Structure formats: structure tokens, C-alpha cells
Amino acid sequence: STLRLLISDVKNAEIAKGEELTDEETTEVVQKKAKKHKESIEAFKKAQRNELVDKEEAELRVIDKYLPKQMDKQEIEKVVDEVISESGVNSIYDMGKVMGQVMAKLKGKADGNLVSGIVKSKLNTK
């Protein structure tokens, strides 16, 4: 049933767009679905609804199989360092500029919150 819902979400996005989705757009749809499951898991944990946590985690494992492999922290740090040195940025006020360039390079291969934390820590040490 998880796959059926995922396929349905992709088809709905195609209908909304009016044409077939690109691979990147399809990945975005799958990532949004995974994010919703992660949020549900957190909410169910807070409510101590372990049976629902187990169900959501099982569905998330299925969804994760269809996502590109996520980069680890060291790989992300390397990309962030490259962008910072290439752009000559040295202030936390330029975080948006750095984030835009980094996320464009990573294209769905890294969690935005993790990238944001790394960029923030790198710019705060400058």
C-alpha cells in the first residue's frame, strides 16, 4: 500500500503540472513523502503511540529505497567548503547565498536541515 500511495502522489503531481515529471521532480515528491513520515514518527513518539511509530517506520523504509543515497556529513562539508572558498563569503549574513549554491550542487542528495547546520557552523567560525 505504501508504493501505491507513492505512485499516486507522483501521478497527482504530474496532473498538477500538466506533464510528466522529471527525475528531479519525482525525487522531490518522494522526499516530501519521506519527510511527512518522519514528522509523523516524531509526533507518534511524543504521544507514545508505538504501534503507529512501527507502522510509519516500516513505510519510511520502503520509501527510502526509492530515494537517492544521501551524502554523509564529511561529503557535505567538502562541498560547503568549496562553495565558501569559491564565492569568497566570510559572513553569516551571506548564508542564503551559500545555501543556494550548495543545495544546487547537492540536488536532493542531502537533507536541507543538515546542510543548513553545516553552513551555519562554517560561517560562524570565520
From TrEMBL:
Signal peptide range equals none
The name under which this protein is listed is Glutamyl-tRNA amidotransferase
Any single Pfam family the record assigns to this protein: YqeY
> Which keywords accompany this UniProt record?
Transferase
Organism of this sequence: Candidatus Curtissbacteria bacterium RBG_13_35_7
Q: Which SUPFAM superfamilies match?
A: GatB/YqeY motif (SSF89095)
Question: Key word Transferase present in the record?
Answer: yes
Q: Which is an annotated GO molecular function term of this record?
A: transferase activity
